[in-house]
């Protein structure tokens, strides 16, 4: 068992060497405890991912495709985006504690994670991943919904994010502009799922960081009309009505629990 758990440690150590070794002298991070190396690597990776994805996407939709996807009067001001960046950067050290904690639990054998796809086979891997995504979707939907329905949670946590409540205040940088505890709570289903079913470790880590790209995408106000994806068109409605479209990747949970509101139907009604 210890030999198998070492596979997880070897993998996270490899990630540490790649990320930390690229940006910092080894004499700075080498003596640090393994768990702290993991947090520092997640922090550097999270910050880079946030800024690279945010700046590239903003440059594309607000500059290269100016007035194509979003009218000029709906483009958020630089000040609004800087405020969003400030909120996200204050929360980022706390966000990175969650994947660091999940790595610690995995390395110590507390979860049902497996290291190699060959351990279960490709068919089982795909089935487990599909179930994992359903569990995460269900968990995030209800966590998000309760952050609205439980008044103290909304007032003291989620309201920080909902100051961005119209098209000209939403931007890709709003995707991680949460109260730190709010952002962690909405990501907790990713970690809970590790105790419920076998999950491939590398896939789990990748999906956590894909969250940063996904949240940037759903705050750009561009409705891609790709069924059943819960894209920005749906999420913009969430920011304006507060009572619809709590889902994350797909519309299915909102459809099942009666909170779905379709942006295309909304446009037809307005006409």
Automatic annotation (TrEMBL):
<keyword id="KW-1133">Transmembrane helix</keyword>
<dbReference type="GO" id="GO:0016491">
    <property type="term" value="F:oxidoreductase activity"/>
</dbReference>
<dbReference type="InterPro" id="IPR006694">
    <property type="entry name" value="Fatty_acid_hydroxylase"/>
</dbReference>
<dbReference type="Pfam" id="PF04116">
    <property type="entry name" value="FA_hydroxylase"/>
</dbReference>
<feature type="transmembrane region" description="Helical">
    <location>
        <begin position="43"/>
        <end position="62"/>
    </location>
</feature>
<feature type="domain" description="Fatty acid hydroxylase">
    <location>
        <begin position="130"/>
        <end position="259"/>
    </location>
</feature>
<keyword id="KW-0812">Transmembrane</keyword>
<dbReference type="GO" id="GO:0008610">
    <property type="term" value="P:lipid biosynthetic process"/>
</dbReference>
<dbReference type="InterPro" id="IPR050307">
    <property type="entry name" value="Sterol_Desaturase_Related"/>
</dbReference>
<protein>
    <submittedName>
        <fullName>Delta(7)-sterol-c5(6)-desaturase</fullName>
    </submittedName>
</protein>
<keyword id="KW-0472">Membrane</keyword>
<feature type="transmembrane region" description="Helical">
    <location>
        <begin position="122"/>
        <end position="143"/>
    </location>
</feature>
<comment type="similarity">
    <text>Belongs to the sterol desaturase family.</text>
</comment>
<dbReference type="GO" id="GO:0016020">
    <property type="term" value="C:membrane"/>
</dbReference>
<dbReference type="GO" id="GO:0005506">
    <property type="term" value="F:iron ion binding"/>
</dbReference>
């Amino acid at each position: 068992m210890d030999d198998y758990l070492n596979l997880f440690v070897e993998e996270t150590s490899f990630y540490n060497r790649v990320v930390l070794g690229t940006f910092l002298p080894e004499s700075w991070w080498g003596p640090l405890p393994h768990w702290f190396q993991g947090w520092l690597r997640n922090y550097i990776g999270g910050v880079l991912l946030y800024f690279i994805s945010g700046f590239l996407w903003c440059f594309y939709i607000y500059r290269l495709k100016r007035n194509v996807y979003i009218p000029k009067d709906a483009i958020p001001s630089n000040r609004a985006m800087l405020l969003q960046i400030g909120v996200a950067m204050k929360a980022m050290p706390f966000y990175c504690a969650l994947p660091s904690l999940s790595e610690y639990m995995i390395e110590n054998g507390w979860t049902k994670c497996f290291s190699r796809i060959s351990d279960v086979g490709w068919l089982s891997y795909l089935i487990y991943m599909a179930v994992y995504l359903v569990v995460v979707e269900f968990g995030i939907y209800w966590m998000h919904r309760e952050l609205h329905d439980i008044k103290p949670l909304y007032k003291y946590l989620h309201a920080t994010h909902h100051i961005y409540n119209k098209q000209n205040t939403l931007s890709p940088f709003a995707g991680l502009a949460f109260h730190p505890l709010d952002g962690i709570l909405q990501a907790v289903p990713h970690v809970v799922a590790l105790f419920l079913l076998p999950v491939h470790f590398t896939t789990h880590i990748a999906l956590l960081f894909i969250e940063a790209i996904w949240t940037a995408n759903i705050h750009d106000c561009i409705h891609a009309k790709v069924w059943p994806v819960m894209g920005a068109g749906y999420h913009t409605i969430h920011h304006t009505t507060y009572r619809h479209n709590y889902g994350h990747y797909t519309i299915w949970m909102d459809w099942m629990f009666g909170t779905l509101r379709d942006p295309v139907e909304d446009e037809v009604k307005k006409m």
